[in-house]
Design a protein that fits this description.
mainly beta, Immunoglobulin-like, 4-stranded mixed β-sheet, globular, binds copper (II) ion
């Protein structure tokens, strides 16, 4: 599953904002915008991305079912959810 990170006039957004995957699958975030972004989970134990410059990516495998909400700390309101079943 690939999450795209795109620029908007507000700074950026994650598309799709909500993603459904199965246990054991991996999500890859690719920064297709000209801004810096990160992926920061509400659950600090998950491990966050470092700052992603343009064209950089971050991937994470999800091994447990659940709903995982995350934000980009640079851009208020830039958020997404991964639902793992
Ligand atoms: Cu951002």
């Amino acid at each position: 599953m690939v999450e795209e990170v795109n620029a908007t006039n507000k700074g950026g957004d994650f598309k799709p904002a909500s993603t459904n995957i199965k246990v054991g699958e991996t999500v890859v975030w690719i920064n297709h915008s000209g801004n810096i972004h990160n992926v920061t989970f509400d659950d600090k134990s998950l491990g966050n991305s470092s700052t992603m410059s343009a064209n950089e990516s971050f991937s994470k495998k999800f091994d447990k079912p659940g709903t995982y909400h995350y934000v980009c700390t640079f851009h208020p309101g830039m958020e997404g959810t991964i639902v793992v079943t």
